Structures are given as structure tokens and as C-alpha cells.
Amino acid sequence: MVKSLKVSHQMLAESVSQIQSASRSYSQAKPLLRDFYEKLLNHFSRQGGTFYESLFQFYQDDRPSGKMLEFLLHDLKDLKVRYLVFYELHAAEMTGGHPKTFSLDFAEFSGAILARIRMEEDYLLPLLEKISEI
After folding, report:
1. What is the pLDDT of residues 42-91, one digit of tens each?
2. Is the distance from CB of 86 to CB of 109 less than 8 angstroms?
3. Helix (H/G/I), strand (E/B), else coil: 92
4. Helices 99-119 & 2-22, crossing angle to 10 degrees?
């Protein structure tokens, strides 16, 4: 699981970089967004309900780790909401996008994604590595 999350992190970071390089031209960035959304959904699905349930079960006697898991789960839910809002503004077929605000909106959204990746690498992956050692 650790390896697949690391690969997912790398793919997301690469997509962010590609979109940032095209973010001044909404027409160039929009096709890249579809791939980015798919990668994000795939990443989110890796951390579904059973994922955190098993972690909570393993760390039930470790209060600091349990609190970190609660924080990560709550942060993931917030990020999913931000994803839906961003997607609705810039990729949904019915809206047609908002080219004037895209650069700023993507900078904010991608910053949240990259911050989440750093949090997962700093806090979640070490918790997963402890489980895999057993």
C-alpha cells in the first residue's frame, strides 16, 4: 500500500506541474484536467472507508496515532469537497469553465493537493509502514 500511495503522489505532483505550465491558457490546461481528476479520484478511492477503519483498529491503543488518523480523515473529507467545487467550476461539461479565474483557482487547489501529499508522506506513510512491518 505504501508503494502504491507513493506512486500516486508522484503522478499527482507531475500532473500539477503539467497543468501549472499550461495554466495561463485555459484551453491548453482543460484537457490535462480530465487526467488529473481521474488520478485524484483514484487516489481518493485508495483511502476509502475500510482503509481508515483498519488503521483505526490497528492503532486503537495508540492515542497520538489515532488522533493523527482522525485529522487525516477529516482533512481528506475537506479536500474532497474542494475537489468537487473546483471540478464544478472548471471541468463540468455544463459550466464551460471559468477561464479568467482558472489560474488563481488552480494555484489554490493544487496547493491544497500538494500540502495533502506532504502530510501523507510525513504522517500517513509512516503509520502504514509500521503495519507492514508486522
Report:
1. 999 999 879 999 999 999 999 999 999 999 999 999 999 999 999 888 87
2. yes
3. coil
4. 160
